[in-house]
Specification:
36% of the residues lie in helices and 24% in strands. With 327 residues, it is of the alpha+beta class.
């Protein structure tokens, strides 16, 4: 089989910047600036390598966080980067016939498809892919938690020989992990692995997901949720601000809300809050069609959950009853 281990780096505009307010022909979560890939031979050993720098067209100003994380500078992209269509022509030719992509996580293929769609390029050649995290979990500790690439390498005793947060470096290290997995069995059992991953609620995009975006720099949970219900609560179709209802808390610092656009109707909003090293909050936001599988699953959960306002009223009534009893 033609296994291609793929990793990418992409640029995102800073929240509130002019770039973040651009209306693109097709919404994207990030614009690809670097792509690295490693072909896995029949013996599952890393073989040929491919890498390319991509000069951004829409988000030309490099996000400082992205630059700090990856080490990529704007000057590099201007000098060594090539236009995305040319990069994809080279990459697709290198991949060869019937590639099966292996990624560490769910994001890379989705980002790739969004960028292909934005440039009106075919994306059917990316249909065969597997998240190696799921295979790794199923064949190691059986957990459903997403693991960092570094953690998986440590579990297998793999020494880091390439730079981290570099597309080719991460693809190479992922290929080293693949060499220690039974990929054939992993593919055969992939559906079961996803099911054990709580039907994707740890990161997999269930059918009906139409937009995903990451936000940074919020001072706390309240500020993050207020932004998600306010200025950042935009319709994925027309970008008008939507009206939210109320947040329902879910396990793992997750929250859900059903937002309404006056023109395009209701959308399910899922957010996950993550504390960053600088003590700010990072928000991963997913938008789903109101009739999607995710919306139905969350609606079922919502029936059993009480929003915070209801809980507070219940507590106040309970306190009043207690006070009357004491009197």
């Amino acid at each position: 089989m033609n296994f291609i281990v793929l990793d990418m780096e992409w640029n995102q505009p800073w929240p509130g910047s002019p770039s973040s307010k651009k209306t693109l022909p097709t919404p994207i979560r990030g614009e690809i600036i670097q792509l690295g890939a490693v072909r896995v031979a029949d013996g599952q050993e890393a073989a040929e390598e491919f890498q390319v720098m991509v000069r951004p067209k829409f988000y030309r100003r490099l996000n400082k966080r992205v630059s700090k994380l990856t080490g990529i500078k704007e000057a590099q992209l201007k000098e060594a980067g090539i236009p995305f269509p040319e990069a994809m022509e080279r990459f697709r030719a290198w991949c060869g016939e019937d590639p099966i992509f292996l990624t560490w996580g769910f994001d890379d293929i989705m980002i790739l498809r969004e960028n292909l769609r934005l440039f009106r390029l075919p994306e059917d050649w990316t249909e065969k892919w597997f998240n190696v995290q799921m295979i790794f979990n199923a064949q190691t500790d059986g957990s459903t938690a997403q693991k960092a690439l570094k953690t998986a390498m440590e579990m297998f005793g793999i020494e880091s020989t390439r730079p981290a947060h570099d597309a080719l470096g991460d693809a190479y290290h992922t290929a080293q992990i693949c060499a220690r997995l039974d990929l054939q069995r992993g593919m055969a059992e992939y559906g079961k692995a996803l099911k054990s991953h709580e039907d994707g609620f740890h990161g997999a995009e269930l059918p009906g997901c139409i937009a995903r975006k990451v936000y940074y720099g919020y001072a706390g949970k309240e500020a993050a949720l207020a932004a998600m219900a306010g200025a950042e609560n935009r319709c994925p179709v027309c970008q008008r601000q939507m009206l939210g209802s109320r947040w329902f808390a879910q396990p793992g610092h997750r929250y859900m809300d059903l937002a309404t656009c006056p023109e395009h109707g209701k959308f399910l909003i899922r957010v996950r809050l993550s504390l960053q090293p600088d003590a700010t909050i990072r928000v991963s936001r997913l938008t789903y069609e109101a009739g999607s599988q995710a919306a139905e699953a969350y609606a079922h959960r919502a029936e059993k959950a009480q929003p915070e306002s209801v809980k507070m009223r219940s507590r106040r009534r309970s306190r009043r009853r207690t006070e009357k009893t004491v009197e």
